[in-house]
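Reviewer 2 asked us to include a model.

Predict the structure of this chain.
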Amino acid sequence: MGDLAAALYLISTAAFALIAAVVGIRLLLLSRKTGQLAERLLGLGVLLTASLGYGVMMVAAVGRSMLSDPSAPSALYTYITTAGWIFHNLGVMSVVGFVVHVFRHGVVWARVLAVVMSITLWAGWALHVFQGGMAGQLPQGGFWITFAIIGTYPFWTAIESFAYYVRMRKRVALGLGDQLVANRFLLWGIASLTTAGSIWFVTIPILVEGNLSQVGTPLSAICMLVTGVLGIATVATYWLTFFPPAWYRRQFSPEGA
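Predicted model (structure tokens):
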């Protein structure tokens, strides 16, 4: 079971990173065409967190787990892990910026909250680095300070998205809104929840086994398999949001399917 889960995990992780890269790049190209900041921020968020962040960190984790002594210092994997974390943290900041820009544009408390979240994220990560986290040491206080932001920021997006979806549905019922546009907010909310799910699942082995580099264990393989599947669901949902195919758009046309 563990070997099968490990194999499926590697496949799902590779697929997740690849699809996320395609979605992120397409969003950046779309933002270049439309000039819209929302697409640019979300495109950077998807690309940096999923492909260049999580993907790179998993390459380092898998590589380190293959060493004869995974806990031994390895400069190469330390550098790779560090790069992955930097990409990921920048992606988190991009998604938080997306939330502020789309849902709370010009709202002071939202801007302040985004700044506080960013400072906490980087301060916790700096402490995590100091505590040997990049070298695969046991997670300590710095990791959990960082996780306080990484593990919760998607819920902000979800709350804002679902709340706006409810408002848009009311406008649609009155003939003042577009069903496809309203559906976009529903999809954003769903993608945010699957993002949160992937983040929490990938952290279970750390909570249970207490080692950032234990990728080869059955629990890690199963949790990361679920993470990969949830990640694919996330980027697929974003794809439907910004690049809905004709068959999907027809569901919201006046004629119906």
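The domain at 2-252 is CATH 1.20.1070 (Rhopdopsin 7-helix transmembrane proteins). The chain has nine helices and no strands. We have added this to the supplementary material.
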